[in-house]
Amino acid sequence: GPGQAEMYAGLQELGVANGEDLKETLTNCTEPLKAIEQFQTENGVLLPSLQYALPFLDLHGTPRLEFHQSVFDELREKLLERVSAIALEGKVEERYKKLEDLLEKSFSLVKMPSIQPVVMCVMKHLPKVPEKKLKLVMADKDLYKACAVEVKRQIWQDNQALFGDEVSPLLKQYILEKENILFSSDISFLQNFFSPSPKTRRQGEVVQKLTQMIGKNVKLYDMVLQFLRTLFLRTRNVHYCTLRAELLMSLHDLEISEICTVDPCHKFTWCLDACIREKFVDNKRARELQGFLDGVKKGQEQVLGDLSMILCDPFAINTLALSTIRHLQDLVGQDTLPRESPDLLLLLRMLSLGQGAWDMIDSQVFKEPKMEAELITRFLPLLMSFVVDDHTFTVDQKLPSEEKGPIPYPSTIPEAFTKFLQENRIACEIGLYYILHITKQRNKNAFLRLLPALVETFSDLAFSDIFLHLLTGNLTLLSDEFALEEFCTSLFDGFFLTACSRKENVHRHVLRLLLHLHHKVAPAKLESLQKALEPTKQSGEAVKELYNQLSEKLELRKPSPAEVTETPSMELPLPTMPTPASR
């Protein structure tokens, strides 16, 4: 075929006979057998000792091809070993000169499957493959595929579009993996999105592949960062910020100083990485991080864009927010105001830098966002007052009650709290983490009190996947409350169902939760929820799939009439007496 001809064409250039030559010899000769013998002699392996060995192999029925093939394989192995050795010995210029000469001689045979590995091996060991050869490789799909990553890097660094084509499916895969974890059917307060350690996350397939593709090549590293920035701007998807940090730390793990020393975020990211590992920013590291932020020099403000992206990583935000809640509780105990705590102020400073990442990169105005004084003087003291309310209520419960009857839990929310959650991004983030905190403490009273504030929040943060993933996990700790009509009405009708129809992701999270807890929910409530959550024509596949799973489960647990009467009496509403509010 034409492929064959093309494949062996390179032999003639090197003065080696090929099939075409044999055909020509046979066409123009009078004694074909003699001609074949002569061709064999001229083009066989030139070793005197073989003259007698070959007829011996013929007697044993070993085909000449098999013999030549095994000699060839042996030689090729030796040659590959030799090429790898040349790449390590002698003076740098000399060894590369040898390899370049070898490439010059062998490149014309690159299409021969038997020789190709040798050519590829030579190129792999050359730090600079001649431009002409790279162009030939690039123009041929099969050759490009067969290339070592060392050669591909040389091609990529001058072909951003081609590199983009290689990186793009990996980035898609990464985002998909993150979303699969957030919507995972395993719901637990022990294992969640933030459970894996940074080191474990960096072992992920995509991070490893990108690290391998970049090698020590700063140009390729910069290109990947550029892709991540562009995608973050286009989609606002914060998982790109996680990948930005993971990639840098993966190169750090491998001690690739060529890249780490030129990334101005390296030391900051390394320090923050240690905080994320501990899920807490301790005082020593806080000082260090502050040193980096204060050390940003005039004329280098652009680094803030990168630092803000590192701080916008949800794993960083999670660590900063958890640390903030812990600090606030400590302050209550110490009777200190938020504005008197430098550690707390630093956490807020980093939170606002992270939360401001998109705006900063979009506007290209590199300066730290101004912190709103009200956040520190009004909002945080408000949160601290909630902590105090809980203490007071707990202590009151324990005191012997004099005729005054039980003290009710405060049920109203200060209007200021709701307003802050709607209008201030940082306040909203911290408020949401406070709600996760009280849910984890199984504090049902505080949860029901603050829940109404979540219906309208700053850019719908309370309906974001990360928050709902964490909330559903923590709600498993309150699973016994799902038997109570009032709790379910507050949680489902008062919160989840307000957004289900306009936000597909909320619909998915509610179904996830019910799949996990349906056996705890009062039957009447379950029935009305099943109606309310029915998918519409517009619903995506994921919602339909979850809804079908739920319906199947509920079909299986339809009780027989005998079981209904055995419901523990406390769970049945008492028809005649008006019940005192159970909050």
Automatic annotation (TrEMBL):
Segments for region (Disordered): 557-583
InterPro entries tied to this protein: COBRA1
One of the GO biological process terms: negative regulation of transcription elongation by RNA polymerase II
Domain of life, per lineage: Eukaryota
One annotated Gene Ontology cellular component of this protein: NELF complex
The protein's name in its UniProt record: NELFB factor
Taxonomic placement: Eukaryota, Metazoa, Chordata, Craniata, Vertebrata
